Every structure is written in C-alpha cells, then in structure tokens.
Amino acid sequence: MNIILLGPPGAGKGTQAARLVAGRGLVQLSTGDMLRAAVAAGSEVGRKAKTVMEAGQLVSDEIVTGVVSERLDQPDVRKGVIFDGFPRTLAQAEALDRLLAEKGMRLDAVVEMRVDDSLLLGRIETRAAETGGTRADDNAETLKNRLGVYHEQTAPLIAYYGGTGTLRTVDGSASIEEVSARIAEVLDAL
Ligand code: AMP
C-alpha cells in the first residue's frame, strides 16, 4: 500500500511513519530527510536547498519532484511507500499523480494528521531541545514561517485529496499511541 501522511510541521508525521515502517514493512520516503542528506553531502541539490530550508521556505517543486522520482525507481518501494512531507504543494500533488501512473503505482490513502497551530509550537520546542538543535529549522521563528507556508501552500491538498476520495483525517493532537491506533484503523479498513 502507498500512503501520504499529510499535516503541519510538528504533527508527528515522522514518528508515525517510523512506526508504520516497523509495523507494516513499508518504506518511509521523507523528502525532508532526503534533502537534509543532500545538504550534508554537499551535492548540487543540497547546495540549492540549504538556505531555503534554513528559512523554513519550500524547496522548488522541480528539485523535490526530481528527488522523489529517483527514489521511486529503487526496488524497495515495491513494499509500499509512506510519503512523509511530500507532496507539499498542488503542483507536487499533480506531479506525484503523474509519477505514480508512470511507475505503475497507486495511492491508497492520504492520512491527514490534524493538529491546531497552538499545540505545534510547544512540540517543536520540545523536539529542538531533544535533538540538541541538530535541525537548523527547529526554532520558533522558523516554525512560524513553516506554519504559514503550510497553511498557504500545503493545506489546499486537503481539498485536493478530499475530491479524489482518498482523504482520511485523524486527530493528531492525541498521544502517539492513540494516533497510531487511529491510523491503523484507517489502513486496516482500506
Ligand atoms: P520536513 O523534515 O518534512 O519538515 O522538511 C524540512 C524542510 O525541507 C522543509 O521546511 C522544506 O524547506 C524542505 N522540504 C521538505 N519536503 C519538501 C517538499 N515536499 N517540498 C518543498 N520543500 C520541502
């Protein structure tokens, strides 16, 4: 099965994706992780992405879609993919539709993890403290930008996938265990 985890920064997409990898043998495709790896490696993609990421803005659709397309050509994705942090714009969603069609894959569900903005700041601050500030974009200033970007550019995907009948919404403000249980219910009902 191929699914998208959709939600604002700090909603717990990465945490839930890791649990789905462990529990269901799916492959996590996190564009944030892939871009951070590119920055660390100093590749051309990384050089282009670095400043944009530090500012909490979105890396270009072209770069991100290219990275995803390459990743989808690796054989392990046949186990099923959890898209984590992708797509983030309507153009990316449309590009993903095309990529999946080209590669003979289908999208089974889009799980929206809904969390109020007020809760997210606290979560991001906790994450910044726990990771010792290893993510340059985990601070209050950048979070505000990232939330703004989410509402402007990514939230329209809720209506996009609502229209395709693939959207399922869970309450992302519950505990990690509870959110996992709700996601499991959604996936088991597919
Ligand atoms: P994340 O780890 O998913 O929160 O992503 C961290 C940062 O990487 C984001 O704030 C963006 O700058 C960049 N990024 C990750 N995924 C995407 C995407 N799908 N489109 C554009 N930029 C992205």
Write a short abstract of this structure.
This protein has 190 residues and is of the alpha/beta class. It has helices at residues 13-24, 31-41, 44-54, 61-72, 90-102, 117-130, 140-154, 156-164, 176-188; strands at 3-6, 27-30, 81-84, 109-114, 167-171. 58% of the residues lie in helices and 12% in strands.
Rounded mean pLDDT is: 94
**By helix and strand content, what is the structural category?**
alpha/beta
CA(first)-CA(last) distance = 9 Å
Main sheet attributes: strand count, strand direction, barrel closure: 5 strands, parallel
The number of distinct helices, counting runs of at least 4 residues, comes to 9
* Low-pLDDT regions: none
Number of structural domains: 1
How does the overall form come out from the CA principal axes? globular
CATH topology: Rossmann fold
Under the CATH scheme, the architecture is 3-Layer(aba) Sandwich
Name the strands of the widest sheet in spatial order: 2-3-1-4-5
The amount of helix comes to: 55-70%
User: Helix-strand pattern, N to C?
Assistant: EHEHHHEHEHHHEH
The CATH H-level superfamily is P-loop containing nucleotide triphosphate hydrolases
β-strand number: 5
